[in-house]
Every structure is written in C-alpha cells, then in structure tokens.
Amino acid sequence: QVQLVESGGGLVQAGDSLRLSCAASGLTFSSVAMSWFRQAPGKEREFVAAVRRSGENTYYADSVKGRFTISRDNAKNTVYLQMNSLKPEDTAIYYCAARFLFTPATMKDDHGYRYWGQGTQVTVSS
User: Fold this and answer.
1) What rounded mean pLDDT belongs to the chain?
2) Closest CA to 20 of 107, 74, 93, 125
3) Which among 80, 85, 90 is positioned nearest to 46, based on CA atoms?
4) What is the model's pLDDT at position 61?
C-alpha cells in the first residue's frame, strides 16, 4: 500500500520560512517524479513545484520561483519543500503527489498523478 505523508505545516508570519516534508512508503521512490500542489479556500488546486526522479531537474510555478525550493532524498524516500519569504497568499493546504511518467508539459495537470498525500496546512499571517 502506497502512502505519502506530509508534515511541517503550521502558522507563521509573513516573511518567515517553513520546510515541508513528504515521506513515501510502499513504492520504489526513485521511480517516481514528485510534486507539490496547494489548494487555498475557495480556489482550485494549483501546481507549486516538481522534481524529477534523480532530483537533478526542478520546476516551479511563477508565483513561488525564487522563494521555494523543492528537493528529494531518495535514500530517505522523502521530498521536501523549503518555503522562504512566505506571504499571506501562500496560505493553503499543501499536498505532495507522485507520478511515473513526467514531462514539463504535463506536470501541472493534477490528473496525471497516481498517488497523493493527505495534505498539511500552511497559514501565513500578515
């Protein structure tokens, strides 16, 4: 049984930092690309960042580029999202997701992801 478990969310002030983690089990972690999505209240789920299997290539939404960093440790079956200079508009539930077939053209399409975590709440106060 595949499980993705996020952690690290919380309540912070604007300008603060948080690091999210997503621990995977039940699958060969190095065989999947990993992404982070987020969903704010009343809004659709949106792509945040992605990392290829090897960790060498990363991709970001324009709204987080330069502030967020995605990384992975295949030895620990974990993907991370380092979030700096947080803004109130970053407030959302953050989800990690895994997919086998990955291309930059399709990475933002959440329908292509096979496995999802339960989400972790990030709240940024102004």
Assistant:
1) 96
2) 93
3) 90
4) 97
Confidence bin at 83 (pLDDT 50/70/90): very high
> Which DSSP symbol is given to 7?
E
Query: pLDDT, tens digit, for every residue of 2-11?
Result: 999 999 999 9
Write 7-11 long-range contacts (CB < 8 A, 24+): 7/120, 8/120, 9/94, 9/120, 9/121, 9/122, 10/121, 10/122, 10/123, 11/123, 11/125
What SS3 class is residue 31? Answer: helix
Q: Are 27 and 71 in contact (CB under 8 A)?
A: no
Which residues are bridge partners to 39 per DSSP?
Answer: 93
* Closest of 54, 53, 85 to residue 69, by C-alpha: 85
Is residue 86 a contact partner of residue 68, using CB atoms and an 8 Å limit? no
CB 82 within 8 A of CB 88: no
